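mind reviewing this fold:
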Amino acid sequence: MRIHELIIGTIQGEGSNSGLAVDFVRLYGCNVGCWFCDTGYSKENKNGINIPFQDLSFQEISQQLQSTNIVISGGEPMLCKELPEFCEYLIKRGRKIFVETSGTAWKNLPEEVWITLSPKENVSKLKTKKIAWEKANEFKFIVDCNNPAEDLTDYYIDKINNHPKTLTFLQPEESSFNGSNIKKILRFLQQIPNAKLSLQTHKILKIQ
């Protein structure tokens, strides 16, 4: 299984599980290439083609993990064919699993897995799959502080309204956020009753 990196003994800094003690398993590879990617998978970096990876067994990964809560991200973890089996492996060993995906690829995962959907249709020609909208436990939209309407389009607002029971978060894109310029995002929150602001707590605290 190709691993970009393991981040041990940190917190989940985003979304509804912000503050939860976790380990991150970042899988190698991405098909989207967001220009603002903070893990090296932007199109400018050829979707991470030069990012190093390790090929590790489930056991080798599990032996390094310390937390009960495991966040599996990428890149795009749904590209990994071993993902469902890996989730099962960790669940059987007492772990709680959280997967972060753009929904541009899909694997059927165990029901226990918490799925965070962060759609990227605003920066990619790749469409979020219908099943991703239906299966997600929460939506996380990355929006530019200076012009959030370009990112949170009417199409996305319709998706949010069509899934009123799904937790929804608006998260400032890092390079546009200075701590005092989120008024336009706050105005969007007034329009979407079930949406909340998500800040990257781990970056504010300057921890990995």
Observations:
- Residues 134 and 163 are 8 Å apart (CA to CA).
- The mean pLDDT is 93.
- The radius of gyration is 16 Å.
- The longest strand covers residues 2-11.
